[in-house]
Amino acid sequence: MRTIDDLDVSGKRVFVRADLNVPLDGDRITDDGRIRAALPTIEKLRERGARVIVAAHLGRPKGAPEPRYSLRPVAARLGELLGADVAFAADTAGESARATSAALADGQVALLENVRFEPGETSKDDAERGELADRFAQLADLYVGDAFGAVHRRHASVFDLPGKLPHAVGGLVLTEVEVLRKLTDAPERPYAVVLGGSKVSDKLGVIDNLLGAADRLLIGGGMVFTFLKAKGYEVGSSLLEADQLDTVRGYLERAEREGVEIVLPVDVVAAEKFAADAPHAPVDVQAIPADRMGLDIGPRSQELFAAKLADTRTVFWNGPMGVFEMEPYAGGTRALAQSLIDSGAFTVVGGGDSAAAVRALGFDEAAFGHISTGGGASLEYLEGKDLPGIDALA
Ligand SMILES: Nc1ncnc2c1ncn2[C@@H]1O[C@H](COP(=O)(O)OP(=O)(O)OP(=O)(O)O)[C@@H](O)[C@H]1O
Ligand SMILES: O=C(O)[C@H](O)COP(=O)(O)O
């Protein structure tokens, strides 16, 4: 694979696909970790006289502009961090993008509007994605793939565009892959994987493959409730993937057969509604009231998880244990992060929100082996799946 050092970028327009999918509160960026992680590649290109056109997605808009998913606040933050103006194109691959790209001088940087405002970006139809990739290709001379967090997506800006321009892999993708390889090539055992978060349907599938790799699987976050329901418990109004119950039963049976331990919470913090000020209390998982939703793992589960991590030598963690953005439901995630540190294991934390949680809860990033920008992407890498955004760079 070519790296950016192999490209002659001086005076060229370089399209950099980055993962700038940061958490926002209104138009305030609550964690800029992914923007910081994107800086080295952009800075290196600028220093070498490239005209840098950055493209990224934010959230999951449905192929049309939605103001709350605009990348405009990200352009401002990127400019602050670079210490340089970042031009912002008001569209993704239209008139504004073309004019912005044409106006760039050597060493200057522009950010395009959210690529997911274009229906072609995420389309299942090759021709539709190809048409958008053609429009992207007109904006630039070269392509750099550096969106590690999105390399598992077969999307136009990640997968199709590199086929249309001379391309190279970015430094962030290289670093991430190098660290994750330590987890796939002979991890020190016991090796535990901790899964949480809210992208349940995305991440349930990985469990099947992880059962073959990890010694222990700890489940928290929104994923818990599909497991509890599969075991016959009532889960009230908690997040539930009802169509996955049979699949999950299959995982539980396979884990039992193969001697992989699946550790589930024994209690959860159950709230009246999805709000910080809602009445809430820890309840045993056998006794979740019908009108309550589980928004965090409970104190007994925190202890159980700590005990199950204490002797591990390698841990991969993706997905917060609860709705950590609201203080009443942050305890599980805070306790889990501390247990990881206390274990002394080689720890990798992956995912936009998981990494943000570690920082928001005041942990020192250096206390973890590696903080990855990819959640779903790291999981798919660990599963050994082909990653379209990496394959396309070969
Ligand atoms: N019990 C729960 N119910 C609802 N939401 C939950 C629950 N537990 C955690 N969450 C939410 O999960 C979200 C993070 O999940 P997500 O799967 O996106 O993780 P991630 O680390 O960002 O991974 P990725 O990078 O793949 O997006 C947080 O915003 C958190 O509030
Ligand atoms: O947050 C992430 O994991 C990446 O930015 C990819 O986002 P997606 O899951 O919406 O494709």
UniProtKB/TrEMBL annotation:
Residue ranges of the TM segments: none
Record-level Gene Ontology MF annotations: ADP binding; ATP binding; phosphoglycerate kinase activity
GO biological process: one example: gluconeogenesis
Keywords of the record: ATP-binding, Cytoplasm, Glycolysis, Kinase, Nucleotide-binding, Transferase
UniProt-annotated location(s): Cytoplasm
GO cellular component, one term: cytosol
Chain residues that bind ATP: K203, G294, E325, G351, G352, D353, S354
Positions of (2R)-3-phosphoglycerate binding: R34, R116, R153
First-listed, main subcellular location of the protein, grouped into a coarse class: cytoplasm
Chloroplast as UniProt keyword: no
The reaction(s) this protein catalyses: (2R)-3-phosphoglycerate + ATP = (2R)-3-phospho-glyceroyl phosphate + ADP
Assembly information from the UniProt record: Monomer.
Family: Belongs to the phosphoglycerate kinase family.
The name this protein goes by in its record: Phosphoglycerate kinase
Top-level taxonomy: Bacteria, Bacillati, Actinomycetota, Actinomycetes, Streptosporangiales
Gene name as annotated: pgk
